[in-house]
Write a structure and sequence with these properties.
Helix content: 55-70%
CATH superfamily of the largest domain: Nucleoid-associated protein YbaB-like domain
Distance between the termini: 7 Å
Number of strands: 3
Strand order of the largest sheet: 1-2-3
Length: 142
């Protein structure tokens, strides 16, 4: 008696398609290069003499002060640093918002319909294989 032939690659393709569709919904592709450049925000003040770089999580990564800022009063310097930091954080927020643009819901819906239809075909094939095996067992393996 031969065992029913069930192709596991169909199920693997189905799972892969589902994962890809879900990744698209989140705005991420699982096939993208994992070493994408990090999103950073940049701000400057005092005609470029104060520059700040911000990273996700509200971290300030770099602070550049041109030596000429030492001629400023401490109050003015503090205001310029604060302005550059706020600009860097605002720039970062805008870049993150752009990177997380809303997914194409129509495309996602169509893709999920295809996944559903494929899963129905796969399940029907699997159930038919089980029924065939059951019939062979009930018939004495003839």
């Amino acid at each position: 008696m031969t065992a029913p032939s069930v192709d596991p690659s169909g199920l693997q393709r189905l799972i892969g398609s589902t994962l890809e569709a879900l990744s698209q919904a989140r705005g991420v592709s699982i096939t993208e290069d994992e070493e994408a450049e990090p999103i950073l925000g940049y701000g400057e003040a005092a005609e470029g003499m104060v520059r700040v770089t911000a990273s996700p999580g509200g971290r300030l990564d770099e602070l550049f002060l041109d030596p000429r800022v030492m001629r400023m009063t401490t109050v003015t310097l503090a205001e310029e640093i604060l302005a550059a930091a706020n600009d860097a954080l605002a720039d970062l927020q805008e870049k993150i918002r752009d990177a997380m643009a809303a997914p194409d819901l129509e495309g996602l819906s169509e893709r999920l319909k295809e996944v559903q239809q494929e899963s129905t075909r796969q399940m029907s094939s699997f159930l038919q294989s089980l029924e065939d095996a059951q019939a062979r067992i009930a018939g004495g393996g003839r």
